[in-house]
Design goal:
Blueprint lengths: L2 H85 L3 E5 L5 E4 L1 H5 L13 H10 L3 E2 L5 H12 L7 E5 L4 E8 L5 E7 L1 H50 L5 H31 L8 E4 H19 L2 E6 L6 E4 L1 H17 L5 E10 L5 E10 L33 H11 L3 E7 L3 E12 L16 E5 L3 H13 L3 E5 L2 H7 L6 E5 L7 H10 L6 E5 L16 E4 L4 H10 L18 E6 L3 H10 L5 E6 L2 H11 L3 E5 L7 H15 L5 E5 L17 E4 L4 H11 L18
Parallel strand pairs: 8-10, 14-15, 14-16, 16-17, 17-18, 19-20, 19-21, 21-22, 22-23
Antiparallel strand pairs: 1-2, 1-6, 3-4, 4-5, 5-6, 7-9, 9-13, 10-11, 11-13, 12-13
Helix pairs in contact: 3-4, 5-6, 5-14, 6-9, 7-8, 8-9, 11-12, 15-16
The structure holds adenosine-5'-diphosphate (ADP).
């Protein structure tokens, strides 16, 4: 190879090397630039990260300080809470779901008197064990085991009832335990010693007050009994005195003594009853009784007063309602006496109507009985209607203040009715009358409808003669419901005009304007009618008829109990046969036995019937009454109820037992000091037929004597000789 070519080659190589160098330089430059860029990016990132770190550091510091503040607050709150729990005097403890103590305050721990084991961690069951073992708790009659068991069982309930435990030193702790959501249990031990002691003091004070009330009430009961006995003598003797020859002035004095005595007796009775109710000493004595008869008896009692005022006293007893009920007859009569008595008292003219309706339940076992007493008297202003049921409250106005009274009657009625589970109300139109009502639920007694079935089948048509429409309607409805045809007439002439052979019996009122009942009977007989006639009169003793050919077949005292009326109708037998005028055998005077331990009352009684042609024998007590009953076989017995030894009820029971063997049934009339004061329970149940309340009134006694008069006996009353026998 020549030099030139060598040179050329070298140049070429150099050029190649130079190009390579350039290339490498360019590559290096590019790499350098990239590196620069990366470095710049890195440094930017570092700056950012640094800033972030700074921020986080700041935040961290803030959180740290917040946390410490929060911790301080928690500690403070906890301290305050604990201090509060410690300051309360009641015990506080917290147990976990396994009944391990978490914490307890000093008050809680103090009852353990420094027992170190009682501390957080101890189990509730162990605490119970300690309480009994250490004698800290008074288990009040339970054995320690029983007590622990009772307390442990209590804990198993999610929300146990608070429990009062008694400590050895007679402190009382009320435990209130409450389980929380996680099963923790908070126990509060409230020291209620002061409350319990206070309650005990109250209890003692109450017992003392109650015994004082009882003493007061029995004092009142005794006193009123003691006052009543001489008062009966005063009133009875005043009554007897009115029958003697007196000047007008003397008569006025005697009448005043009698009226004041009676008013005083009624006040004594009211006060006694009210004090009994107040002292909660009044118990009800439910027994089977005849409601209709009870209403009648009350009406009979008040009939003389109503008659005096010319008031028409009427009863409408729902014929479809049973008469036999189970209730407290004495208390029901008392309410009735009060309400009917008020109705008569506050009514000057018109009527007093008693309605008894009722709805038996589906089985016929219970009756919702509704009794209303409607009058046509002075009425009660609207704003006074609630007021009058309060004790000693009366309507305060001119018109009302003309009447006597204590204002206790309605208060007693309301309490009695409520005691019997019923309610009482009043509606009224001032000036036009009042209507008092009460509703009671009573069980049905044994016999549903007495005597109704006994009506003879041959009575198919009854004529009713009465001038008072309500009286006609009541009877009309009662007969109508039994399928008997009724011809109702409002006066005698109308009855004469409506007479027809279909009529089987006539029921006529006696006191009608123009032609009275007896006049009608006479007119019927004169025109040849021999249909049986029953006359209803509120004063049957005054009706006159010839005993040899009686005009009528019966004179019945109004109001007539339904059972009595039906019995009389049944006794007519075959009505078309005419009255029984068979001659009677030789007549003897009526024998009356009166059992009465009080000599004054004996004197009063004998004076009251001294005008009667009867044989009177006194028994001084129950035993004597029974003995005399066997010896003299009386036609009528008056029986004092409260007698020492064998009382009137026991004597009557003994007599009824004798009669079971010998047959017969002597009417026995109870004489009670106060029929409504609760002593009368069982008077009628004991077998007595009627009762009269003291002070005795002559007309009532004469009425009973007249009612007991039967065939073969001389008429007891001189006036009675004109009266039909039975
Ligand atoms: P008392 O009749 O002894 O005053 P009550 O408690 O029986 O006591 O009656 C309270 C009052 O209610 C009576 O004084 C009277 O003002 C009023 N009162 C009660 N019943 C009637 C009635 N049927 N008509 C008008 N007012 C009556």
């Amino acid at each position: 190879m020549n030099f030139a070519s060598k040179l050329t080659e070298e140049r070429r190589n150099r050029l190649a090397a130079e190009r390579m160098l350039e290339l490498k330089q360019a590559e290096l430059f590019a790499a350098n630039r990239k590196l620069g860029l990366h470095a710049q990016q890195l440094s930017e990132e570092i700056v950012e990260t640094r800033a972030e770190v700074e921020t986080i550091r700041g935040e961290n510091l803030r959180v740290k300080s917040d946390l410490s503040a929060a911790n301080q607050k928690i500690a403070l709150t906890e301290r305050r809470l604990w201090q509060s729990i410690e300051t309360i005097s009641d015990g506080f403890a917290l147990f976990d779901a396994d009944n391990q103590m978490i914490m307890a305050n000093q008050a809680y721990l103090s009852i353990f008197d420094g027992l170190e084991v009682v501390a957080p961690g101890i189990n509730y069951i162990t605490i119970l064990q300690l309480l009994t073992d250490e004698g800290i708790v008074n288990t009040e009659g339970l054995s320690p085991r029983e007590w622990r068991q009772m307390m442990a069982t209590r804990l198993q309930v999610p929300a146990p009832e608070p429990k009062v435990i008694r400590l050895w030193n007679d402190e009382y702790i009320k435990l209130v335990d409450q389980r929380g959501s996680g099963g923790d249990m908070v126990t509060l031990g409230l020291n209620i010693t002061a409350t319990v002691n206070y309650e005990q003091q109250l209890e003692e004070a109450r017992a003392k007050a109650e015994s004082a009330t009882r003493a007061k009430s029995s004092f009142l009961a005794n006193m009123s009994h003691e006052i009543r006995t001489p008062m009966n003598g005063v009133v009875g003797m005043a009554d007897v005195l009115t029958d003697t020859d007196l000047t007008e002035e003397q008569r006025l004095y005697v009448q005043t003594i009698k009226n004041s005595g009676e008013a005083l007796l009624s006040i004594i009775n009211d006060v006694l009853d009210f004090s009994k109710i107040e002292a909660m000493k009044l118990d009800l004595h439910p027994e089977p009784f005849d409601l209709e008869r009870a209403v009648h008896e009350v009406m009979m009692l008040l009939q003389p007063l109503a008659r005096e005022k010319g008031l028409n006293l009427m009863l409408d007893y729902d014929i479809f309602m049973p008469t036999q009920m189970v209730g407290d007859p004495g208390r029901i009569r008392q309410v009735l006496t009060n309400l009917i008595g008020n109705a008569v008292k506050f009514t000057a003219s018109g009527h007093v109507m008693i309605r008894v309706t009722g709805v038996p339940d589906a089985q016929g076992l219970q009756n919702r009985v509704h009794i209303t007493i409607e009058d046509t008297g002075i009425g009660i202003p609207e704003d006074q209607r609630a007021h009058i049921f309060g004790e000693f409250n009366q309507v305060e106005n001119e018109r009302n203040r003309q009447f006597d009274g204590t204002g206790l009657g309605l208060a007693i009625c309301q309490r009695l009715v409520e005691l019997m589970g019923g309610r009482i109300w009043v509606t009224s139109e001032e000036g036009n009358g009042a209507c008092f009502g009460f509703a009671l639920t009573m069980a049905t007694g044994s016999v549903a409808m007495p005597d109704v079935a006994a009506l003879p089948a041959d009575i198919g048509h009854v004529m009713i003669v009465d001038d008072i429409p309500t009286n006609r309607t009541i009877l009309e409805r009662q007969f109508g419901q039994l399928g008997i045809t009724v011809t109702a007439c409002s006066n005698g002439p109308e009855a004469l005009a409506s007479m027809s052979p279909e009529i089987d019996v006539i029921l006529t009122d006696q006191n009608m304007p123009g032609m009275d009942g007896m006049d009608l009977a006479r007119a019927l007989r004169d025109s040849g009618h021999d249909v049986p006639i029953l006359v209803l009169s509120s004063t049957p003793g005054q009706a006159e008829q010839d005993p040899d050919s009686p005009l009528v077949q019966g004179l019945l005292q109004k109001p007539v109990p339904r059972a009595t009326l039906f019995a009389r109708l049944s006794a007519l037998g075959h009505p078309k046969d005419g009255p029984d005028t068979a001659p009677l055998g030789p007549m003897r005077p009526m024998r009356i036995l009166a059992a009465e331990d009080n000599k004054t009352n004996q004197l009063v009684f004998s004076k009251m019937i001294k005008t009667l042609e009867v044989e009177l024998t006194f028994a001084n007590n129950g035993e004597e009454a029974v003995e005399l009953f066997k010896v003299i076989a009386p036609d009528l017995i008056f029986m004092d109820i409260s007698m020492p030894g064998m009382d009137g009820k026991e004597a009557t029971q003994a007599i009824r037992r004798i009669e079971k063997e010998t047959g017969g049934h002597v009417p026995i009339v109870a004489l009670t000091a106060h029929a409504m004061d609760g002593d009368d329970h069982g008077i009628l149940a004991a077998g007595l037929d009627h009762y009269l309340t003291k002070p005795l009134r002559k007309p009532d006694i004469l009425e009973r004597v007249a009612a007991a008069h039967g065939p073969g006996l001389l008429p007891p009353l001189p006036a009675d000789s004109d009266q039909a026998a039975g």
